[in-house]
């Protein structure tokens, strides 16, 4: 058997915190013996009866002489009683024994140590298990209290590695996750997240209890009261000690909260519905985010920790009427323009995917009141072109290139400084393509090394219009420059080498902002106004593509994709698949809010390899991973050129697809600006195997579709980011007929 994590455990204070550690270590066989120390004889008796301690004594001095190196003393008494325990330890602690504690404030423990030993001794490892509850006492102790809870250790410079590791191992043996933090940071974080809520809960219940109507108040108190005030049942001595010990940090937290409560009061008094909605929607978003974090589903850093593997079983066909989620490009722009407009903008069909949500959160962080999203409906309370406020910190844009590049344009003309950051993939993508033209307009922008994020934008620089000739076909660059143009003196124009998606131009026009368009050139003059209105976001043709390709390649398939945006700057996938022989019909064509929309019917038909016309590349730029899957199923060779841009998307999509296709037995040769794929014609086109999507949503979904024509199961790694553009993909794919599961 492995060595126990600690020798003897002496628990000074056998309440909820100390008793639970003792029970957990005993259950895990992680200590040789537990000695309980309590002030009263009957508590000692109780600790023995509950199986918390093997021995229990009322005096610490009694047990110290028997301790030896490797043993641990855990001080689990109220914060202000820690010092008296330290004094008892001072002269009688045998060498090599580790001392740690569980107090909620660490600064006062360090002070107590300094008073006792003249400094923090090397054997003291201050710690704080974040697992308390409103219950207290030995009878509340449980052996599973710490499982999956965090314990913060705050070692100091003089803390010895050996003692630190012993305490770390001890908590891990109890099932906890151990982190470290400086003392001061710990106390500030806890003041805000734990101590302030306790103060408020005690204060609220005390206020209501003093009310002459209190009996009735408590009688009618509903779930809200119960949820909000549970912690007012916590141990008063413990909390008195905590607030006295962490005075300064708690006072700062109370001041911040009081200012906010005063603002809330004024808004209620003034009937200021916008401010109220602002506070409530921001709070709801933050609380929901916290809930998702707990469930490990948040879009921020936590998402990267989540491993999602797709298991796609071979064969089958697809059928049915399907509505894929809203268009990502339009969803981003609806939030941006809606926020900068005057008045209310109501959006229907908004994409509730992580990318568009990152844009939404960025504007919330800049003070815009945004209701929803609720089943695709979002209501934006526009603040006007000059109404954005300084965000509280960097704007984190997750995986979304569109958010970062378009926001760079919008923010270059603001009066405040702002930093834009992103996840690992976004942090590798080129940003000089937007930073350079913005600098030409007079903006001050710093990037990370080699023009990568973060982008640091300095406010207060007056922009002037430029005539910008784009070096590459990019709607993001075009949109960035035009959006900066809203803030520039004079005229700003862009000229693109090939047509790219024109949602920015269309939506600006829809918001009543004049945009001149003449062939490849688009221009506008700064200083105008946007007027809020209604936006109907159609289904995203880029998401519909996966089902178009699925139906095209799988014999016996027929799908109807409803209400899909078929803007002529986005329809390359239809043209390319049709040129390969796909059976695609556009039904019920109509125009919705300035954008062409149709239902798309696709039936299986044999495909033939083609040389993809270069003028189609920008019109199908996001659809190539799926088109490569179609090419692998077609009869003969497909050649793509002029698509070097694919190398700077969420992954290098040429390399990522070539690697995966080769693993699945397809002859696919990458070239600097494209790929050459030898298609299989009829029958299975792919073997089976494990491919890596590299965290790129479109690569992940493309290989899932390939399974329809595979001989064996395809495992696809790193699929969590499918949620950036296509939440619910797995469920919809299953409904359509794919045999797809998440692992
Ligand atoms: O403007 C947009 O909404 C987008 C433009 C394209 O990027 P580029 O402009 O980099 O080609 C596209 O790949 C991206 O998914 C969305
Ligand atoms: C390239 C894409 O998005 P973005 O550039 O916004 O990250 C995409 O969705 O395929």
Automatic annotation (TrEMBL):
UniProt xrefs under Gene3D superfamilies: 6-phosphogluconate dehydrogenase C-terminal like domain, Enolpyruvate transferase domain, NAD(P)-binding Rossmann-like Domain
Its keywords, alphabetically, are: Amino-acid biosynthesis, Aromatic amino acid biosynthesis, Cytoplasm, NAD, Oxidoreductase, Transferase, Tyrosine biosynthesis
Specify the pathway: Amino-acid biosynthesis; L-tyrosine biosynthesis; (4-hydroxyphenyl)pyruvate from prephenate (NAD(+) route): step 1/1; Metabolic intermediate biosynthesis; chorismate biosynthesis; chorismate from D-erythrose 4-phosphate and phosphoenolpyruvate: step 6/7
Q: Name where it mostly resides.
A: cytoplasm
Q: Name one GO cellular component term.
A: cytoplasm
Which top-level group of life is the source organism from?
Answer: Bacteria
Q: Where does 3-phosphoshikimate bind?
A: 328-329, 333, 474, 476, 622, 649
An example Gene Ontology biological process: chorismate biosynthetic process
One Gene Ontology term of the molecular function aspect: 3-phosphoshikimate 1-carboxyvinyltransferase activity
Which CDD domains does the entry link to?
EPSP_synthase (cd01556)
EC category: transferase
List its EC numbers: 2.5.1.19
Localization: Cytoplasm
Pfam families in alphabetical order: EPSP_synthase, PDH_C, PDH_N
- Positions of the catalytic residues: 622
| Residues given in the record as phosphoenolpyruvate binding sites | 328, 401, 429, 476, 653, 698
Q: Which reaction does it catalyse?
A: prephenate + NAD(+) = 3-(4-hydroxyphenyl)pyruvate + CO2 + NADH; 3-phosphoshikimate + phosphoenolpyruvate = 5-O-(1-carboxyvinyl)-3-phosphoshikimate + phosphate
Q: Which residues form the Prephenate/arogenate dehydrogenase domain?
A: 7-298
What role is this protein assigned?
Answer: Catalyzes the transfer of the enolpyruvyl moiety of phosphoenolpyruvate (PEP) to the 5-hydroxyl of shikimate-3-phosphate (S3P) to produce enolpyruvyl shikimate-3-phosphate and inorganic phosphate.
Subunit composition and interactions: Monomer.
Q: Which NCBIfam families match?
A: aroA, PRK14806.1
By sequence similarity, the record places it as follows: Belongs to the prephenate/arogenate dehydrogenase family. Belongs to the EPSP synthase family.
Q: Which HAMAP family match?
A: EPSP_synth
- Name of the protein: 3-phosphoshikimate 1-carboxyvinyltransferase
Annotated gene: aroA
């Amino acid at each position: 058997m492995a060595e126990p994590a600690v020798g003897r455990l002496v628990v000074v204070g056998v309440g909820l915190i100390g008793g639970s550690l003792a029970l957990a270590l005993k259950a895990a066989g992680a200590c040789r013996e537990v000695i309980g120390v309590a002030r009263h004889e009957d508590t000692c008796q109780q600790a023995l009866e509950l199986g918390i301690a093997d021995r229990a004594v009322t005096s610490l001095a009694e047990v110290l002489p028997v301790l030896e190196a490797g043993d641990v003393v855990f001080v689990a008494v109220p914060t202000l009683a820690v010092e008296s325990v330290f004094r008892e330890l001072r002269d009688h602690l045998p060498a090599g024994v580790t001392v740690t504690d569980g107090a909620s404030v660490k600064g006062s423990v360090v002070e107590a140590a300094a008073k006792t030993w003249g400094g923090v001794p090397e054997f003291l490892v201050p710690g704080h298990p974040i697992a308390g509850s409103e219950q207290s006492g030995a009878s509340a102790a449980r052996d599973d209290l710490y499982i999956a809870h965090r314990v913060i250790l705050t070692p100091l410079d003089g803390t010895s590695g050996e003692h630190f590791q012993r305490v770390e191992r001890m908590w891990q043996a109890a099932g906890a996750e151990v982190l470290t933090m400086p003392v001061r940071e710990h106390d500030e974080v806890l003041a805000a997240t734990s101590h302030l809520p306790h103060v408020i809960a005690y204060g609220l219940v005390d206020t209501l209890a003093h009310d002459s109507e209190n009996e009735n108040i408590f009688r009618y108190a509903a779930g809200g009261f119960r949820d909000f005030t549970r912690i007012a049942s916590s141990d008063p001595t413990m909390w008195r000690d905590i607030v006295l010990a962490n005075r300064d940090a708690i006072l700062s937290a109370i001041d911040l909260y009081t200012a906010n409560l005063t603002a809330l009061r004024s808004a209620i008094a003034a009937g200021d519905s916008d401010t109220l909605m602002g506070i409530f929607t921001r709070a709801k978003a933050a609380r929901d985010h916290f809930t998702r974090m707990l469930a490990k589903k948040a879009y921020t850093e936590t998402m990267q920790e989540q491993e999602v593997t797709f298991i796609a079983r071979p064969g089958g066909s697809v059928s049915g009427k399907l509505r894929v989620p809203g268009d990502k490009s339009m969803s981003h722009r609806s939030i941006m323009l809606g926020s900068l407009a005057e008045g209310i903008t109501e959006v229907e069909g908004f994409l509730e995917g992580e990318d568009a949500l990152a844009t939404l959160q960025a504007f919330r962080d800049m003070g815009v009141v945004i209701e929803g999203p609720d089943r695709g409906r979002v209501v934006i309370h526009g603040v006007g072109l000059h109404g954005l406020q300084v965000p509280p910190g960097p704007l984190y844009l997750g995986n979304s290139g569109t958010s970062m590049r378009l926001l760079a344009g919008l923010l270059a003309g603001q009066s405040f400084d702002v930093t834009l950051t992103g996840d690992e993939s976004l942090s590798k993508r080129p940003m000089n393509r937007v930073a350079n033209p913005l600098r030409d307009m007079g903006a001050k922008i710093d990037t990370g090394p080699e023009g990568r994020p973060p982008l640091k934008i300095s406010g207060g620089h007056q922009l002037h219009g430029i005539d910008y000739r784009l070096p590459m076909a990019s709607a993001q660059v075009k949109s960035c420059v035009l959006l900066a143009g809203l803030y520039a003196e004079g005229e700003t124009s862009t000229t693109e080498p090939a047509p790219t998606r024109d949602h920015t131009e269309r939506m600006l026009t829809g918001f009543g902002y004049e945009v001149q368009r003449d062939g490849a050139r688009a221009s506008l003059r700064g200083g105008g106004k946007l007027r809020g209105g209604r936006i109907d976001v159609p289904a995203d043709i880029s998401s519909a593509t996966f089902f178009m390709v699925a139906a095209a390649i799988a014999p016996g398939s027929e799908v109807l994709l409803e209400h899909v945006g078929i803007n002529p700057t986005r329809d390359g996938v239809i043209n390319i698949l049709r040129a390969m022989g796909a059976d695609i019909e556009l039904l019920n064509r109509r125009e919705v809010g300035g954008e062409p929309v149709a239902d798309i019917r696709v039936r299986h038909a044999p495909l033939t390899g083609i040389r993809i016309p270069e003028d189609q590349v920008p019109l199908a730029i996001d659809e190539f991973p799926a088109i490569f899957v179609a090419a692998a199923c077609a009869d003969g060779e497909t050649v793509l050129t002029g698509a070097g841009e694919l190398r700077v998307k969420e992954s290098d999509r040429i390399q990522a697809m070539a690697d995966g296709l080769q693993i699945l037995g397809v002859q696919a040769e990458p070239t600097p600006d494209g790929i050459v794929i030898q298609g299989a014609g009829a029958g299975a086109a792919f073997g089976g195997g494990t491919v890596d999507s590299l965290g790129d949503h479109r690569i992940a979904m493309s290989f899932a579709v390939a399974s329809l024509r595979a001989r064996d199961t395809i495992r696809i790694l790193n699929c969590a980011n499918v949620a950036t553009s296509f939440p619910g993909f797995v469920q919809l794919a299953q409904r359509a007929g794919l045999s797809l599961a998440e692992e």
